[in-house]
Structures are given as C-alpha cells and as structure tokens.
Amino acid sequence: MNQFFHKLSISLYFIIIIATILGLSYYGRAYYNLPIEERYYTSTGELNQMHKLLYPSGYIGHNLGIYGTIFILLGLFSYMIRKRYKIFMELGALKYWLDFHIFLCTLGSVMVLFHTSFKFGGIISIGFWSLVIVWVSGL
Ligand code: HEM
Known about the structure:
Number of domains: 1
Structural class: mainly alpha
Number of helices: 7
Bound molecules: protoporphyrin IX containing FE
Distance between the termini: 24 Å
Shape: elongated
Order of helices and strands: HHHHHHH
Helix content: over 70%
Largest sheet: none
C-alpha cells in the first residue's frame, strides 16, 4: 500500500467513526438527554417511539450492541491471526492491520457505548467499564 492509500484509509476510518458518533448523537439527542428514570414513562408519542428503538434491548440499541461486539471481535482476531500465522504474511504489512484493529475496536466500542444508552450502573456495567479500560490501555 503506498502513502496515498494509507492516508486515504486512515482518513476514511476517522470519518466513519466521527460520522457514527455525530449521527447517533444527533438522531437520539432528545432521548439521550432525558433523565434515565423518565425514559420509561415518556408520554410524548415521538419520545416513546425513540425509547422503543434506542433503549439497550430496543431494535437499534440491541443491534448496536450486537454489531459493536462483532466489530471488536473482527478487529481483534484479524490482527491476531495476521500477526501469528506465516501464511497470512502476504496480506499487507502488519502496521496496516494494526490501523484496522484500532479502527474496528474503536468503532465497535462507540457502538457499544450507544447500546448502553448512557445508562451506567448495575453488574452488567462492569463489562462496559472493562471495555473502557482495555480501550484506554490500547491508546
Ligand atoms: C475494544 C477495544 C480493544 C481490544 C479488545 C483490544 C485488544 C487487543 C489485544 C488482545 C491485543 C494483542 C494482539 C496480539 O498481540 O495478538 C492488542 C494489541 C494492540 N492494540 Fe488493541 N484492543 C482494543 C483497542 C485498541 C485501541 C483503541 C488501540 C489504540 C488506539 C489499540 C492499540 C493496540 C496496540 C498498539 C497493540 C499492540 C500491537 C502489537 O504489539 O503487535 N487497541 N489489542
């Protein structure tokens, strides 16, 4: 991969992550800004609809968790396999796979963050904070 394509891929990774953050924040802004205890009892039709879509088991919220996890696993195992097995050596330099690892793991973590709908508490949140620690340790 030459310098041009390397820069292009990094820019694309960056744009996709920023677009995901901005897109989800904008789409769910009214819902995410509601206090947690009010979310279940919203009487406004539109917010009620948003709750059904965006809460962690809602259609969008749940899929964000599922696909975010898949992205993290893909980013993890593709790098590990490329690094360890000689037969994959021809599939590009390891540093490009590390970029891909960072991209998929960051995108996946962002999706998992929105999956939580910013509700941090209880035993299940230990999993989320563990992910945050792994992510920060990567940085
Ligand atoms: C969910 C998030 C992440 C998980 C689960 C994760 C997991 C891992 C694992 C298991 C390895 C070891 C791979 C191996 O040597 O076979 C690794 C390596 C690494 N990761 Fe991540 N990572 C995550 C996010 C990040 C992020 C956000 C960054 C940087 C911004 C990052 C940077 C690195 C670096 C620099 C290495 C070392 C590469 C090497 O020495 O070969 N990771 N990561």
